Input
Amino acid sequence: MPSRRRFLLSAAAGVAAVTAARRRVLSLAAAATAANPAAASKGPPYAVTHTDAEWRRLLTPEQYAVLRQAATERPYSSPLDEDYRAGLFACAGCGQHLFSSRTKFDSHTGWPSFWAPLPDAVATGPDWSLAMFRTEVHCRRCGGHLGHVFDDGPPPTGLRYCINGVALTFAPGPA
Ligand SMILES: [Zn+2]
Output
């Protein structure tokens, strides 16, 4: 069965390529850590910074778990998931405006979902937790963890910003 054999060979080559690419990313990350351990552990300098004790005081336990410890809220637990009023969603950690209701859509995942953030509002980085590769989304102003971005969203971007509602505050008004 030459066609099946060819498929298996190309599948094996694909796996090898992905493994090699991952190894490259990991070694790059390791090199960056060696060059600047402070940057690797704390991320870039943020306009809003607090000590861990201050964050614990400023945030609710649920907000702290998501924003500062990258926890994920239970799906369908946030009232913002099904809130489609016009307005702006801001970071619960620092108040930075992050998303407009104009880009919100129903992803049926149980988490507030957007196809684009506001300009310069968020940053992304690799997340290797849970034994899978995902792209983490965090607030550009305070570094707070917001959620992840996936490439299965609707037009016009094709992106799905899957955001923990507890990491957001919502202000109804012009979007
Ligand atoms: Zn923030």
